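Suppose you are handed only these lines of text.
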Amino acid sequence: MPYLPATCCPICALPTHDGTTCGQCLQEKLHFDRTVAVFAYAFPINRLVQALKHKEKLMLAHCLAEKLAQRITQHPDHLVAMPHHPKRLRSRGFNQSLELARHLGRHLNIPLLPDACERNRDTPPQAALTRKERNQNVRQAFNCTQNFQGKHVAIIDDVMTSGASLDELAQSLRKAGAIEISAWVIARTLPHNASAGYDPGIACRMSADPVQKLKNDPQQAPEIHL
Ligand SMILES: [Zn+2]
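From them, the structure of the protein bound to zinc ion can be written out as follows.
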C-alpha cells in the first residue's frame, strides 16, 4: 500500500526531507494547523476511494477510517466532514467524507457535527483545475452555522489535493471562533517528484491488511473505470 513516508510537512503532509515545514507552507500560511494523512493518492488507494465515492461501497469507509484512526494522536473537540452542496448530495445520495467522519467519531469517541458547516455554492469539481483556479473555485464556498469559539476542530475529507477546499473551510471555522484546526484525510495527492519516499516493501508485509483484502476481493472492490 502507498503509505506516506514518515517525514512529511506537518501542515500539509507533503513529504519533506526531514519532516520540517515545506516551502509552500512557509510561503503561504494555511488556515489549518496540521494534516494527518495515511496514504499517497496512488494505486490501489485511488481505486478504493473512487469505489467509495461512486459505488457507495460504504464498507470501505469503515476500513479506511480505521487506518486513519490509528494515526490520530491529538483529540479535537469536534469533527466536521467536508460538506457537499445539497444538489450534489441529492445526485450522489451520500457524502463519503461524512461516512468516514461517522466511523472516526464513533471509533475515537469525538462528537461529529454533521450539520455545522454547509457548502453554499455548487463549485465545479476540483480535479481538472490548476492550484490558482482551485483557490478561486472554492472561495467563500462554505458557511459555518455553529459557534466554535475556543474549539479545536478536525475536518475530515477523503483526498487532499491542493488543500484549497480544506483551507477555505478552515477559514470559515476560524471565523466561527475555532482556535485550532486539523485536517484528517485518507490520502494525499503528491507531485511526481515527491513520490520517492515510499517503501514498496510495505505492500508485501501488509498482506493481512483489511484494505488489501478488500482490493483482492472482487465482491468488495469492483473494477473501477477512472
Ligand atoms: Zn506543507
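What can we learn from it? Strands lie at 34-40, 78-81, 117-119, 142-144, 152-160, 180-188. The two ends are 19 Å apart (CA to CA).
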